[in-house]
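Human: We require from you a standard protein entry with sequence in single-letter code and fold as tokens, and nothing else.

Assistant:
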Amino acid sequence: MTDEQDQLGVALARDVDRAFPDLVRTHQDAVYATLRRLTPDVAEDLTQETFVRAYRALREWPPARRRDLRARPWLLTIATNLARNDARRRTRRPATRPLDEHDAAVPAAPGRTDWDALLGTLELHVRTAIVLRHVVGLPIAEIAEVLHRPAGTVKSDIHRGLARLRTALDPEEVVA
């Protein structure tokens, strides 16, 4: 653990209400970046829900457990579970939301739609592993912890997923 993680754990053990904003500030970008790639249209909502669930859980935990918390993998586990549940819900009941004026007025960043579409073609566990590794920058061991999968399986998922993305891209777009 880093000194920052230790200090945050000690602060959470002492007083969840006072330390929780620091937990959010420290990890909100990683949680949002992960959810943005997994569930773009509900990433903000799921980010908020991640922190609501985290707060409720921390309020119930004893101080010793809060002090030993590995916050980043724990929060990303909550976030990826919410994304998985959202994906299941959508396959059972596809959304039928009409395109409104705001959506039509906001152009996508060049290439972003293509990348999101390609990433969206991967299985959720493969997409999640790639996002956690290459967007959030987690080490393989933490990804394995978040996904509850062996590290070797996570490495394989990332390797296979990146290979699929490379073959789907136009060869001129692949950067050497």
